[in-house]
Amino acid sequence: MATKAGGTGRFTQDEKRRDSDHVSFLKHRSFRWLWIALLLSGAAIAGYLMIDQQPRPNGGTWYGYTLGTIGVLLILWLSLLGVRKRRINPGAWSLKAWTSAHVYLGLSLIVIGTLHTGFQIGWNVHTLAYVLMLLVIATGIYGVAVYATLPASLSANRKEMTRAQMLDALTAIDRQLESAAQPLGREDADLVIAAMNQDPFSLGVIGRLTGNFYGSCRTHYALTELEDDEPGMERVYPLLEKRLAQLDQIRGQLRIRALLEVWLFVHIPLTIALIAALTAHVISVFYYW
Ligand code: HEM
């Protein structure tokens, strides 16, 4: 599985390289952070079950305050990953260790946050903070899933070609199209010229994410408008088909890249909304204390 996280820390250069090259952030240090997160969640559940109190503890009990404090501190720490990612100086922990801890401790918040609510859900700022937390976690799970699966499709779609080679292949087809389209009539030639002049990268956000490029694709439009048995088409039509196949490949790459990045555009704003709701939640709790 591919990972974005790099490796530095207290280990020798060789150890660091081995770790960062071959082990994904999920398996980092034999799932160390998974075990820590399970321990934390297990302890929270055990504490909740062991407290002999009716009604069951919620946010307003000493146990609730303990879980709430752990939850807030965890959320603030998880939010710092954005700062860590952009820091040039690596510090004591590798980015891979940070990401590994981020993922598993982030998941443990499902248990900690839920027990903190004491299962008391309502139309208020407390539940808003809880729901936002769950949404941030859900987008994080999506992120991990795409990091785990999409890099493989990225290289499969590339068919051993680099981005520059894909663009070169398109330019080569266009050069042939230019000469093949010379004998065409004005209207047909205009369709071919419009196809060649279209920027292969201008897909729009929706097109990029859904993979539905054909609505605005001029090469596809030219193929639907032109008749392959018309005079002069015997070279042009197959070249346009080849052009469309090449475009499919380039746009496939753009789509996979967009899917790899888009979730962060939800994960980050939701994190900001979560911190705002959390602040309101904490202030209102202490205000009415
Ligand atoms: C309330 C809990 C969470 C908060 C507040 C949070 C917040 C953040 C923030 C601020 C970033 C940095 C984004 C950036 O600047 O590029 C980030 C990245 C990330 N988060 Fe979370 N997150 C949470 C939970 C989770 C969970 C549960 C998962 C996975 C199951 C997850 C997976 C990720 C991943 C994979 C990254 C990107 C790492 C990278 O690009 O190298 N997050 N998160």
Domains counted in the coordinates: how many? Answer: 2
Distinct bound molecules: protoporphyrin IX containing FE
Question: How many E strands?
Answer: 0
DSSP helical segment count? 12
User: How big a fraction of the residues is strand?
Assistant: under 5%
Instruction: Report the mean per-residue pLDDT as an integer.
Output: 88
Please give the alpha-carbon distance between the first and last residues: 48 Å
Largest sheet: none
The class by helix and strand makeup works out as: mainly alpha
Low-confidence stretches: 1-21
How does the SSE layout of this entry go?
Elements: H1 13-22, H2 28-50, H3 62-79, H4 81-86, H5 95-117, H6 125-158, H7 163-180, H8 186-197, H9 204-210, H10 218-225, H11 233-262, H12 264-287
Helix pairs in contact: 2-5, 3-5, 5-6, 6-11, 6-12, 7-11, 8-10, 9-11, 10-11
Bound molecules: protoporphyrin IX containing FE.
Distinctive features:
289 residues, mainly alpha, 12 helices, disordered N terminus, binds protoporphyrin IX containing FE
Describe the structure.
The chain has 289 residues and is mostly helical. Helices cover 74% and strands 0% of the residues. Helix 2 (28-50) runs parallel beside helix 5, helix 3 (62-79) runs antiparallel to helix 5 (95-117) and helix 10 (218-225) runs antiparallel to helix 11 (233-262). The structure holds protoporphyrin IX containing FE (HEM). Residues 4-5, 75, 78-79, 81-82, 85, 99, 102-103, 106-107, 109, 133, 136-137, 140-141, 143-144, 264, 267-268, 271, 274 line the site of protoporphyrin IX containing FE (HEM). Residues 4-5, 75, 78-79, 81-82, 85, 99, 102-103, 106-107, 109, 133, 136-137, 140-141, 143-144, 264, 267-268, 271, 274 line the site of protoporphyrin IX containing FE.
